[in-house]
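note to self — DONT lose this again. spent like an hour looking for the file last time. sequence + predicted structure for the chain T wanted, 312 res
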Amino acid sequence: MKKYAVGVDIGGTTVKLGLFDREGAVLDKWEIPTVKREQGRHILPDIAASIRDKTVSAGIDSSDILGVGVGAPGPVDSEGTVYRAVNLGWDVFNISQTLGSCLDLPVKAANDANVAAFGEMWQGGGKGHDNIVAVTLGTGVGGGIIVNGSILTGATGAGGEIGHIHIADDEPEACGCGNHGCLEQYASATGVVRLARRRLAQDQETSVLRSGELSAKVVWDAVKAGDEVAIQIAERFGDYLGKGLAAVAAVANPEVFVIGGGVSKAGTVLFDYIRPAFEKYAFHGCRGAEFALATLGNDAGIYGAAGLILNE
């Protein structure tokens, strides 16, 4: 019986890799640089070489490896074809076939946010549930949707782009995607700062936020300290995110929303502002969704990637 699987999470700076046993325990994890020159053509061969080196040094024969799962930053369809990964220099090609031919092993690939969501469902904050929506509140807002234990990829792998749900009609600033009024313009770390700056510009009400540099952490620390202006910003944040997640729930009907990313380090206080808005806007059949914090952190990608193989 084959004993191992490898999970790969391709990032813009480093590639994270993990060796897992059949039960989903990580036996080893390591990183290699993401070499993006020449349109990223070295990335997959470098990954293949690193996996070979690791398995040889561990005394593992390739015949004992079930396969390799890969999370990649970009739309990836159910067949493993990536439809451009701009920050890697990739155009359209099949990751599974290309890496599989380098390793002579089965390879399954998916979008990195979807893979991280799968990891949280399998071994993280969503464990025990088959229907989850994972939301990553970082520089932007990422998402992954798991329905009946399977990743919702969509036609071109763009399913789960929660951050680009249109949430406001009157937004003057453009989102990174080029549209205006996307959820991530308000619910990301940078979005929290945007909301804070706008609130502080409205009047001169006393607030600790007026001294020092603004960040999402500073705002949430002020919320916990009872700063009234910060609480108003949190309410605005919660209204935007609750409304966006209510829209997602009407389509995906998850059992639980798993919240991760840098903003989630504020802890469960986030739910005090997200949940009331969610329940206000959600269809009645969806209001029972739970909220949980992600638990795998930066390892969610390698767990989810390995899970693509181990849960076939």
